[in-house]
Amino acid sequence: MTDTKRRQFLATAGALASLSALPASAQANPRASAELPPILHMVYFWLKDPTSTEDKQKLIDGLQSLRAIPQVHSLHIGVPANTLKRDVIDNSFDVSELMFFESVKAQDEYQLHPIHKKFIEDCAHLWREVVVRDSISV
Fold first, then answer.
1. pLDDT one-digit tens code per residue, 59-68
2. 58, 123 Cβ separation under 8 angstroms
3. What pTM value is reported for the model?
4. Residue 74: which of 27, 115, 36 has the closest Cα?
5. 134 to each of 39, 97, 103, how far by Cα in Å?
6. I need a surface site. Which of 11, 71, 94, 98 has the fewest CB within 10 A?
């Protein structure tokens, strides 16, 4: 799979994976999705040392700290699922983050929040690559 195709796939897979983070009522009722915050922030991390359980846990703990940022409506932190192997599946990342925001303004404020800046300062040395996909509901 080419790097471009992998990145395109990750954006789509992240959006689909976000459905698993929804409340059961939203999953059962497609109209309920209109009630979800419109901004989706998907981030995929590849660790410098993917064999280090300590580094992975440090990154996960750092991501957990982002819950304290008031603009974050909801946060899901995950690792690759051991799902059926298919050509379209890219589970090469080590850790993922999925956030919902009420508005673009809230997402922009999150980016500048001191807790987010501290997370980057404390954890950036752990990853070799990060892919971010932001989308807005249509």
1. 999 999 999 9
2. yes
3. 0.75
4. 36
5. 7, 12, 12
6. 11
